[in-house]
Each structure stands twice: as C-alpha cells, then as structure tokens.
Amino acid sequence: MSTAPGPVEAPQPTAPPPPPGPGVRPPFAAPPVEGRTARIWIGLGVAGLALVLCCGGGTAAVVGLMVTGTQALNEQARAVVSDYINALKDDKFDEAYALLCDARQRTESEEEFTERVSQEPDIASYTLHDLQLTRDLSLPADVRYANGSQDSVRFLLAQDRRSGELEVCGVAG
Question: Is the pTM of this model over 0.70?
Fold first, then answer.
C-alpha cells in the first residue's frame, strides 16, 4: 500500500494573547535597576549642596550686615562725640548744646549748660575708643585737660527719633 503524498498544510500563525487590562505590555518583566540608587544619591547630594550654599550665603550676608552696621554706628558715634568735644574746646557752647539729645535739653537750658561747662577745666586733647553696644550706647574716651589732669569718661549716646542721628545724652565719669 502506498500512501500518496498529499498536500501538507502549513501551521497557521497564532496571535499573541491580548495584554491583561488596559495599556501596553511592558517590554521587560521588571524595570532595570542599574544605576538607580546612584542617581538618587547624586540628586540628594546636589540638593544638599544647594541648601548649604543658600544657607551659608544667607548667614554670610547677615554677618556682613552686622559687621558693617556696627562699624557705621561706631563711626557715627565717634563723629558726634568728636564734634561735641571740639565745640567745648573751642568755647562754641551753642554748637555743643545743639548736639545734646532732646531729653537732656529739656532738663537743662542752653544758658544753664553754658554756665556749667564754662566752669569745667579746658580740654587739651582726647582719645576716643570703640563704641560699646550694651543696654545703653556709650563711647569711652580718655580726656586730658589743660591743667595737666586726665580722666576716663563715657559719653552716653541716644538716637534722635526724627533725624536718626546719634546725640550726646550725658557724660559719665
């Protein structure tokens, strides 16, 4: 018996099963993990560096403002006390009186001030020190008088509410 070769049927291609649920089937079973932790640490490091730079820059700015503000206040205090002492040295009592704070001017008239300071020893020279920023603003000074004596005094200062300028509010020995 012979079997005659008959036409051979080619197998039919089958379609892949549809993906489960909506969307497209991912090309991988799980996302790749190579370098993922490294990127996280690099990102955290860059964010930390930015935070340090911002905070450090802010801190430096605050410190810089404090230093320059203190220097400016010291310079203004030295200028007003120097003007006050020079006015007393030159017997320009009206100019010295004008440099007094309002509270001091209310307790002593210009005539009383002139009478009082004209009886004090004449100032020959003086040395101003740095402003002391305590509860009250004060500027220490060493004063030498024409009679040869010397004294260490503190000039008490206050800020004028209208002009913002420092004024002499008294002298403490």
Answer: no
